[in-house]
Design goal:
The chain has about 240 residues and is mainly alpha-helical. The protein has 10 helices and 2 strands.
Amino acid sequence: MRRKNHPRFVFDTWPDILRAKHTQFDERPLDDLRLAFDSVCQDLRHQIESLPFNKVFDLIQFVLRHPRCPGRFIAETKRAFAECRLAYTIDPGPPPTIVPAVTPEEGTAVVEALQTLQDGGLGSSAKHLREAAARINSGDWAGSVRESIHAVESVARQLDPKASDTLRPALASLKQRGALHPALEKAFSKLYGYTSNEQGIRHALLDRTDARVGPDEAVFMLGACASFASYLWRKHPGKEFS
């Protein structure tokens, strides 16, 4: 006799992904895990509806970054973000990263910049930008600005290894070699000055509990630094100075 209401279970790579989520992200004991399809759907719906939006993004990113997460799922999640016109997009990585963007065009520009840096062997710069995006998602605006600037520093030092470990002398060196237009060097040096002068971004907080920087500044600097870092590399591909 055929049994009625036989439960369906998740399969393929999803049991491994859900075990990792359950024990690492949720920090729950493994013997509490239920892999019946309806139970999984119920638990996920409860989390998505009850968690703050940034924690929901943390959950999504955790799943996307699991080594067994299907590429099709990453692509479909990115498509869903676009169809819902969220102020975020997904950089497929590696590793996949949720990237804030005020407009779809801004999101596309950041993702393309990340791809340019990754393809150029500038993994360190791309890593800083992904960390900047992650800090925006967690509300660490000053930390995000700091990571964005580090991404440009990384590229500038790659182009001129003899330059200082800070950005301004590296940009000046590139300008002197004719590798950077003086107006661009001046503009980005001023932005760098902003991050150096503002407490809590590049310098430790002293008598204030927070830096004068918010989500608007953090998102702007992410886009500006991603574009400038990729511009430097596209303009001078493979032309590291000796």
